[in-house]
Amino acid sequence: MDKKQVIMIAKKHGLNVNENTIDFNESGLDFQVVFASDEQGQKADSN
């Protein structure tokens, strides 16, 4: 998954993610976590 995919998925769920704040955490073997802030600076995470 890349930043563009994260933005598209977030938009489908009504989230406007700031691309510059996307941070991937790939520490798990079978999952991926993405941390980001929205355009108003609110933090959100998804796994």
Provide an overview of this structure:
With 47 residues, the chain is of the alpha+beta class. It has one domain (3-42). It has one helix spanning 3-12, and strands at 23-25, 33-37, 43-46. A three-stranded antiparallel beta sheet has the order 1-2-3, with no helix packed on it. A hairpin with a 7-residue loop joins β1 and β2. The longest helix has 10 residues, at 3-12. The radius of gyration is 10 Å and the shape is globular. The mean pLDDT is 86.
Please count the beta strands (DSSP E, at least 2 residues each): 3
> How large is the radius of gyration?
10 Å
How far the N terminus sits from the C terminus, by CA atoms, comes to 12 Å
Number of domains: 1
Short summary:
The protein is α+β, with helices and mostly antiparallel strands and 47 residues long.
Question: What is the secondary structure topology, with strand pairs?
Answer:
Blueprint: H1 3-12, E1 23-25, E2 33-37, E3 43-46
Antiparallel strand pairs: 1-2, 2-3
Q: Which descriptors would you attach to this protein?
A:
1 helix, 47 residues, alpha+beta, single chain
